Amino acid sequence: MPGLRLEGKNAIVTGAAGGIGLETTILFLREGASVVMADISEPALEKAVAKAKEAAPEMVGKIKTAKCDVSKEDNIKALVDSVDEWGGVDIMFNNAGIMHADDADAVDTPEKIWDMTQNINVKGVWFGSKHAVLSLRKHNKKKGSIINTASVVALVGAATPQLAYTASKGAVLAMTRELAIVHAREGFRFNALCPAPLNTPLLQDWLGDDQAKRHRREVHFPTGRFGEAIEQAQAVLFLASDEASFVNGSDFVVDGGMTKAYVTPE
Ligand code: NAD
């Protein structure tokens, strides 16, 4: 019988209380990893860790939670250092991100929303990548996998503008690509996940019951539906595992074909 896909690996997931983060945590646990679930919201983390334990009762690794604001370097350093007791990080999923309700177009986006979005979505990924590299080196690891969550809006333009968010995800994509090249000979792989719009609170709370707003987006999916968080998590699991040993610097698009579509089926 083949072994578990992440057996013996230590992983950090940021934004672990949210849609993609929680589903990824569960898959990582089921595949034998030990996981630190990090999030800015402690109450959300409490609920999420209970769900993760329930969904992965057979877990062989360890699990712990950490309150962390990814936009603060001391928070990220403490988070990564907390994995020293397990032998250092092998997998870093820099996934926390925000899409602010006041984010709009070039004219209407407030500067403070712009700055907040870049601080969390871009600086947070930089800090996570930086401290993952430092930990991998400190523990003399010959391989590591860092996955950074970007978005399809880093690849295609949307006439439903959220300029600060879009700019932040473009930065994540470019930064991840460069990190992949810089660290390739150390055995550290960097890949960017590009999800299409999903059925997670980040988007769905914002869409609410507004059917017109919903349709405006759904019509662009060849499949006619939004993606599910678990479908992103399966991709992250692959990128985290040694099965992806030659996958580096990729814009890993999980979008049901959305970014390849011109006219979609009726
Ligand atoms: P979500 O809102 O369900 O989860 C995001 C989590 O990040 C939340 O638990 C939140 O508390 C946490 N968070 C927010 N700010 C933080 C901070 N400063 N420090 C630490 N944690 C913080 O969203 P999701 O859909 O699971 O999104 C995860 C990632 O996927 C984000 O980077 C998002 O931009 C990206 N993404 C989402 C979609 C979508 O449609 N849902 C599409 C493309 C990309």
Entry keywords:
Sc_DH/Rdtase_CS, 266 residues, alpha/beta, 8 helices, oxidoreductase activity, seven-stranded parallel beta sheet, SDR_fam, NAD(P)-bd_dom_sf, single chain
Set down the secondary structure blueprint.
Layout: E1 10-14, H1 19-30, E2 34-39, H2 42-55, E3 63-67, H3 73-81, E4 91-94, H4 111-138, E5 144-149, H5 163-182, E6 188-195, H6 201-207, H7 211-218, H8 229-240, E7 251-254
Parallel strand pairs: 1-2, 1-4, 2-3, 4-5, 5-6, 6-7
GO molecular function: oxidoreductase activity
Keywords: NADP, Oxidoreductase
Family: Belongs to the short-chain dehydrogenases/reductases (SDR) family.
Structural notes for this entry:
The chain is an alpha/beta fold. Helix content is 41%, strand content 14%. It contains 8 helices and 7 strands, in the order E-H-E-H-E-H-E-H-E-H-E-H-H-H-E. It has a 7-stranded parallel β-sheet, sandwiched between helices. Strand 4, helix 4 and strand 5 (144-149) form a beta-alpha-beta unit. The longest helix is centred in the middle third of the chain and has 28 residues, at 111-138. The radius of gyration is 18 Å and the shape is globular. The protein starts with 9 loop residues before the first strand and ends in a 12-residue tail after the last strand. The mean pLDDT is 96. Bound molecules: nicotinamide-adenine-dinucleotide. The site of nicotinamide-adenine-dinucleotide (NAD) has 31 residues, from helix 1 and helix 6.
